[in-house]
Each structure stands twice: as C-alpha cells, then as structure tokens.
Amino acid sequence: MKICSWNVRGCNNPLKFKEVIDFFKVNKVDVMGILETKIREHKAARVINRYVCGLKVVCNYNVLGNGRIWLVWNPRTVTVLPITSYPQFVHCVITHHGSNSTCFGSFVYASNDPTIRIGLWDSLRSLNVTQEWLVLGDFNVVRDASERISISLPNLADILDFNSCLLSCGLVDLQSTRVWSKLDRALVNGAWFSNFGSPVVAFLPSGMSDHSSVLVSVLPAHYRPLRFSFLNYWSSFPGFQSLIHET
C-alpha cells in the first residue's frame, strides 16, 4: 500500500492538476492528500469530472472554502472512510484490499500562523487514536533548529508546541533525507510498528511545486521478501545444462 501527501502550491492550472494525477498513477499511489490546491469549490466538480476519472475524491470545503486539502484514492485497491474534516487536516480510515489491513490516516496542511496551528495540535490530541495511525503532510514547522538550513532561527515556542503534540499523541517522526526546511513529514504511532513494521518513506523531487511529495510504502510486519532457493536435483533434469547456457 502506498500513501502520499504533496503540497502542490495551487492547482488552478489544468495542466498542473493533470501532472499531479499522472504522478498518482505512475507511482501507483493508493491514497493521496493533495494540499493547498487553491481550487474554489464552484470549480471542483468540473476538475474532478475531467481529470480524476476512476478515482474517489473528498475535499474539506465544508470547513474551509478554498479547498486546502483534497483526499484522492483508488477504489480498486483501497477503501477510504472519511471520519472528519478540519481546516488543517482530514482524518480517515484506510483499508487495503490486498492485505485487508486497516489504519487511520490524517492528512495535514498546517497554517502558517502559529496561533492557528495550536488548534491543529489540540485537534490531533483529541482524536485519541490507539490503533495504527499515519499522520503526514505539511506541518509548517520544524521539530528542531537543525532541520532548517537558514540564517534565521525557527521560533522555539513553535518547536516546543509541535513536539509536545507529538509526545501526547505518541507519534514518531519517520526518517527522511534532509531538505532545505523540513516542513513535510510522515509520522506513525507505536501500534503502527507492531502491525506494519517500519514503512519506507521517500521524499520525491518537487517537480512543479517547491515542496517534495511524501510517499510512504507500507508492508505488513510479517512480510518478508521471497528468497530464491536452488534445489540440487534440478540439475538432473534433461536439458538443464543447455537451458543454463542459453540464459
């Protein structure tokens, strides 16, 4: 199962939105949070009908008019049950058809205003999730000054607020390559590691945005790659040696 988030920095250009959907399909993403679409609600249906054929879409227009978060998924591979929408994140349950595994997913696009972000931290705490939980997106704040390569230092109070939220929620930051300012990230709780093990996280080239997409590849904890075993008696089969030489 592949779960992704990407701050696309606006998708009013049809070609730009098409690039996002092409990214979804090429990378075989199952669920994707498209952040900061800037697509107005009255244009959403037209965009969806034209470019999102065969996929399911949920937007948080009910709590914010400018479509900050679009949740897109492939109904052939996953079932997504949206639970609630907030101005700064969408919370849902994701069930993967192939493995029948289920997890909670929260797709975040945090405000640039630290006073408004306090509401995000409080809302995440209020979810009280104890089952497998993945939280990913653009948090608009770093966890440590070392995550930001800049002359100006980040605000310490903002860092403390963010880390306090993660501690309260039992969320762990998944490892990733360093970027200019680590605002985009993926986090999981302890139950996740027990059932899914350590996911593979990739921060892909930003492309038409100035943010990297966050792509999380999930495998059940019991998954092990199949190993090839050579059985000696195969060499006694007629034509075995000639087949080896041909290949």
Description:
The protein has 247 residues and is of the alpha+beta class. 27% of the residues lie in helices and 28% in strands. It has helices spanning 14-26, 41-51, 114-127, 156-169, 190-196, 240-246; strands spanning 2-7, 31-35, 56-59, 69-73, 78-85, 89-96, 102-109, 133-138, 171-173, 184-189, 200-204, 213-217. It has a 6-stranded mixed beta sheet with strand order 3-4-2-1-12-11, with no helix packed on it. Strand 11 and strand 12 (213-217) form a beta hairpin. Helix 3 (114-127) packs parallel to helix 4 (156-169). The longest helix is centred in the middle third of the chain and has 14 residues, at 114-127. The protein is globular, with a radius of gyration of 21 Å. Residues 223-231 have low confidence and may be disordered. It comes from Saponaria officinalis. This is Endonuclease/exonuclease/phosphatase domain-containing protein.
